[in-house]
Amino acid sequence: MRRAAGGVNGRSDIAVIGLGAMGAAALSALARAGADVTGFERYDSPHELGSSHGESRLVRQAYAEGERYLALARRSAALWQTLNAETGAEIYTECGVHYAAPAGARLTRDVVRAAQAAGLPVRTGDGLPGADLIVCPSGHERVFEAEAGLARPEAAIAAWLSRAREAGARAAMRTPVRHISRTPDGFTLALDDGPVLARRVIVTAGGWTGDLAAPLRARLTLQRRVMTWFADPDGLHGPENLPAFVIEAEGGWYYGAPAIGPDGVKIGRHHGDEPCAHPDQLDRRPGPSDADGIADLARSAFPGLGPMTRQSACFYTMSPDEDFILSFGELDPDMAVVAGLSGHGFKFAPAIGEALAAWALDETPSVDLSVFALARFG
Ligand SMILES: Cc1cc2nc3c(=O)[nH]c(=O)nc-3n(C[C@H](O)[C@H](O)[C@H](O)COP(=O)(O)OP(=O)(O)OC[C@H]3O[C@@H](n4cnc5c(N)ncnc54)[C@H](O)[C@@H]3O)c2cc1C
Questions:
Q1: Where does a domain end: 292, 318, 344?
Q2: Do you find a cis peptide bond into 46, omega within 30 degrees of 0?
Q3: What's 100's domain CATH number?
Q4: Are residues 245 and 140 in the same domain?
Q5: Strands (E), the chain
Q6: pLDDT tens figures, 168-217
């Protein structure tokens, strides 16, 4: 596709609104495919005000959340490896994921079931990687998934943005899109310093999606979550010894990542109910009570860890059924929206970015994502 002239105050064939994980991945895929594309970001990405910060995100393939994710997980796993190879940076670390849960619990059962469905190698029983560092009550079941690990969100976003710019994309930072309106041949995006025209629009605005795509406002709810780090005084909890982990306790999931930075091991709580009306109203000052449950788990399951070193607030953008909303041309034939990633979307960013680029360029996507259409809600 021929690149058109134009920039922020002009015209772009394709506009990507929101340059967090999904938008940055899409911008990179589009630019590298030769598209005339401009990304718009209200802050300076990567940043700590959305849902893609905090040093690490788990990357899993034996997807307990359901078989409908398996093809997307497989494609993303391949693209994480490609990103590492092409950047020469360790953005994805394949340290494996160690799952532990009370006997008969949903987590370990569903991981094994997903691994069987996808033909992925998982191990159970004694002597799994990380078993000597993760203490569980007797009777707990453990599963180890080797072709999994963690990705570094800030590094991934920076790499996608840098690759996008190298391939000719424009990435306009501190440039909020205030409104999108339809024109006969595309859209007008209202910016603070004037309008921009685009033929196709991709909305990847995370928790702010309802501000731009009104039909989604009632479908999306936000849930505050706080990530907590614990010191690794003996330096034993790095990814060479400790895999990423998911532990089922008190009927919910706790997850975490080995020490990959000075703050030590990260632990977060996936379950819970901390609603928030809008990202701009999120309480971003974590307090001691935010570590309730997490600190108990750190003490009981990781006796080798030291005191809490850091906390960081973030939020999930939930869909009604906790499955993704990947909407291609449903609200408008020339608009795609990614939303409602429900606290488990990051690992899929490479494949979702690729799929958004394929849609915008009228190409066949490598993974069929129709199961995630908005139409499922009727
Ligand atoms: C604590 C926590 C832990 C998680 N752990 C995992 C995990 O282990 N594995 C996993 O796969 N997933 C995980 N997730 C989920 C995952 O991180 C998110 O699903 C994913 O990062 C969301 O990416 P996004 O691009 O949709 O949103 P964001 O990264 O928030 O990006 C949206 C962007 O849009 C911008 N924006 C909004 N409105 C506008 C506008 N009007 N104009 C311009 N720009 C705009 C925002 O500034 C932001 O940069 C976790 C999430 C949290 C909060």
A1: 318
A2: yes
A3: 3.30.9.10
A4: yes
A5: 11-17, 37-40, 57-59, 92-93, 97-101, 122-124, 141-145, 149-151, 170-172, 179-183, 186-191, 194-203, 221-230, 244-249, 252-257, 265-269, 275-276, 308-318, 325-332, 335-339
A6: 999 999 999 999 999 999 999 999 999 999 999 999 999 999 999 999 99
Query: Where does the pLDDT of residue 137 fall: very low under 50, low under 70, confident under 90, or very high at 90 and above?
Result: confident
Q: Which of 61, 152, 181, 208 to mutate to test the pocket of ligand 1 (most atoms within 8 A of CB)?
A: 208
Please state the domain count of the chain. Answer: 2
Residue 225 Cβ < 6 Å to ligand 1: yes
Q: 372 and 229 share a domain?
A: no
Ligand 1 mean position, distance from CA 51 (Å): 3
Ligand 1 atom with least separation from CA of 344: 12
Long-range contacts of 189-193 (CB under 8 A, 24+ apart): 189/15, 189/17, 189/40, 191/8, 191/9, 191/40, 193/8, 193/9
Angle, CA 333 vertex, CA 327 and CA 335 arms, to 5° = 55
Residue 126 pLDDT grade (very low, low, confident, very high; cuts 50, 70, 90): confident
